[in-house]
Amino acid sequence: MNDPAQRAALEARNAALRTQVDSMLANLERQTSALREAQAEAVAKTGSATSQDGLVHVVVNAAGIVTDVRLAPNAFERNTPEKLGKTFVQVVQQAALDARGQADAAMAPFQQNVPDLPDLFPGAPSLKNLLPTPAAPPLTPPRKPDDDEPRDSLMDGNGW
Question: Rounded to whole angstroms, how far apart are CA atoms 96 and 70?
Fold first, then answer.
């Protein structure tokens, strides 16, 4: 490779490739940083829900773990333990769905247009269904107050 013209052409192609690789690495670094920020945002999300009668309020973290429970002072006066338990389960489920929705929204930009393994390597197995997504538990329908329960509550305004 003693020809100066060939050597100059080769060096120009090398420089162009280096510039392209540097640009790709910088882009990867920006995307990785943005992904870390989105993951941190998703993990920090919390969901909350309050029962229709205002007697139960629950906060859960992004993993669906209950982090706060508040019961109205008259919660035990207006309910049987069975009714209160069912209400509690319903409110926890609603709060968990709220947190999950917020976390999913934070990660959504990074989950769009992501190629699957068969897109890159024809005939390869798909990775999309490798880990099944857990189905959300069915929410129990809101209960109607019994005729013997007082219609007005201090907590009806969801004053949490």
Answer: 16
> Which residue is it, tokens 């009806």?
156
**Burial category of 53 from C-beta neighbours within 10 Å (exposed 0-12, middle 13-18, buried 19 and up):** buried
**Contact 56/71 with Cβ under 8 angstroms?**
yes
User: What pLDDT is stored for residue 8 in this prediction?
Assistant: 92
Summarize the confidence of residues 126-139 as an average pLDDT: 61
pTM, whole model, 2 decimals?
0.60
Tokens of 159: 């004053």
CA-wise closest residue to 68 among 86, 88, 97: 88
| Strand positions, DSSP E, 2-131 | 46-50, 56-61, 66-71
E strand or H helix at 94, and its extent?
A: helix 81-111
pLDDT at 150 (0 to 100): 47
- Cα separation, 105 vs 42, in Å, equals 8
- The one-character DSSP state at 121 is S
